[in-house]
Amino acid sequence: MDVATTAVVISLIAIVLVVGLMALGWRNRQLRQQGLQAPAGLPGNPGTPLYAAEGQYVVTTTGGDWLDRVTAHGLGNKATATAAVYAHGLLFDRTGDSEVYIAKENLSDVRLERGMAGKFVEKDGLVVVSWTLDSQTFDTGFRTRYSADKTQLLAAISALIEDADPLTNPTSKEIQ
User: Fold this and answer.
1) Which burial class, exposed, middle or buried, applies to 70 when counting CB atoms under 10 A from its CB (0-12, 13-18, 19+)?
2) Which part of the chain is the PH domain (predicted)?
3) What does pTM read for this prediction?
């Protein structure tokens, strides 16, 4: 074997090893998170959305830890999606993956961030929604396709949160 062939073989072995370790890590993360409750499904007759925006569902992470991706129930899968705000909750309708529906009583905060696991963009480029499910806090990121939609989506979700429980959300959230 000449030097070039040896280098190619070693490189291929290294690539296979790295991919294998990544797959093992993903599987172990799924096993650790298998006890997480699945988000509720969209109500049978959801009605008309108050606001909807096209974009990309980025990821769901554990609350406050923007690198701790939640893999259970497909919440860690990036996908093209539509974020639709209804009077009863928020729906991320993902193309090629399951819907993620968050009832308004589970929503706790919405803000703009620079990034989270798997996606980093310009300052305030992601709409990040904080929510709870079975006493566990999560953050879900969404990147709107059009910049103008970001402000409107933030306002619609903020209005939904403020309407959900004014005792836990006493201050209005300003759009920057």
Assistant:
1) buried
2) 41-157
3) 0.75
